[in-house]
Amino acid sequence: MDLLEYQAKTLFREKDIPVLPSQRIDRAQDVKGLRIPYPVVLKSQVRSGGRGKAGGIRFVENTIDAVAAAQAIFNLPIRDEYPKVLLAEAKYNADQEFYLAVTLDPSSRRPMMLGSIQGGVAVEEAISEVQQVIVDQEFSSFYARRLSVKMGLHQDLILAVSAIIEKMYWLFVEKDLDLIEINPLGINSSGEVMALDGKVIVNDNALGRHRDLAALIQNHHNPAKASLTDVYSFPFPCPFDRVLLPRLKMVELEGNIGILSNGADMTLTTVDLIIQAKGKPANYLDLEAEDYTELTEAWGDHLYQGLELVSQSDQVKVVVVNLLSHVVSSQKTILEIANYLQKKANIGYLPQFVLRLAVNPPREILDQLAQLPVQVAESLDEAVKLAVSLAK
Fold first, then answer.
1. CATH class entry, domain 226-391
2. Model pTM?
3. DSSP character for 362?
4. How many helices (H) and strands (E) would you count in the chain?
5. Which has more pLDDT, 325 or 225?
6. Average pLDDT of the segment spanning 276-294
7. Per-residue confidence at 230, pLDDT binned at 50, 70, 90?
8. Which CATH superfamily is domain 21-90 in?
9. Residues 6+ apart with CB under 8 A from 205
10. Which of 59-75 are b and which e, b meaning 16 or more Cβ less than 10 Å from the residue's Cβ?
């Protein structure tokens, strides 16, 4: 589950990660009682990216402008999501902007720290320059310094940024998070570091161990728990229990490679690898459900709906299916994909499929797949290379 920015920064404060003075705004008129001196920035609190380009972030110099801007932002949907809350924050003049993140490496199942000197929107255009350090032994500050050096930092900046990375790591581990991201980490002329924006993805299955996170989420209306048909327009019925729907979230891009995976980390890793290989993702969808035991019975419907959703666009030439099939047997997963392809074989257009599972399917299943428009890759790297080639 994605936290909103103001919720993420609540966690940052607990770990002494520096954030700007801020104030939650529940109604446009609340800005009249701002305790933060102007100029301030008003930010739409939605889970979608691209808030700035959509007009969801505005700088204001006085109360009159602030009220008008707040009203406009509250009435501005970003990818069909209206903000229930705004964040008012002090303005910060950054000379440099970095990107930092901690997530789980899907291959080693170890924490992985990411960093780039190209932060903010620039990181999307320089994804290949993002540095990685996997924490493969007991953590020490060495790992944080190593990432800072790989980013190309020097002297005092190594110390300052390493300290932030270390705090992010411990927050990631102690709260059982799926992702913690600061983008950008601002650096001003005096060398002060500041988390200007933050993203945190909570592992839903760990909420029982972290009542503070559960309380943080419950204190805000959670649109991700609404019916998915309120967010996405489904051209087909949803036969499976709606309790599974909140985890079926698709992000639409402008490329020609669709991505279907299970787990936020694995999904985003697949996206990143395709971009690094000069491919262009068209969309990506995370199949992960909140309760795998409940999902097992409905897995066929769940997987079918995911395949249908990610491949329905005419711009999608190839679909990469990258699944860690501990949910159900790999045989059942592949059979469901085969059934889907057989049902769709007679329609006018069907993209090519590249299948990569974390376990090796039986020979008889591979023989069955050989009769269908799907290619099986033994590794994620191979799947990405194949998909990019097919999409050209």
1. alpha beta
2. 0.58
3. P
4. 12, 16
5. 325
6. 73
7. very low
8. ATP-grasp fold, A domain (3.30.1490.20)
9. 290, 291
10. ebeeeebbbebbeebbe
